[in-house]
Design a protein that fits this description.
Number of strands: 0
Oligomer: single chain
Helix content: 40-55%
Distance between the termini: 23 Å
Number of helices: 2
């Protein structure tokens, strides 16, 4: 994950992701929501209906 900002992103390879790849990654939002996302994924593994 640390090297992710240095990785090239190719808009042409993933046209449906073009809007997300057109702007910088908001690392502050990811950091703020990371614990909640992990909790949801753990619950989702136990209960696929919640995924």
């Amino acid at each position: 994950m640390q090297a992710l900002p240095a990785q090239p992103r190719y808009k042409g390879d993933y046209p449906r992701l073009a809007p997300a790849l057109a702007r910088p990654i908001r690392w502050d939002l990811i950091a703020a929501q990371y614990d909640q996302m992990v909790k949801i994924m753990i619950i989702g593994v136990r209960d696929p209906a919640l995924m």
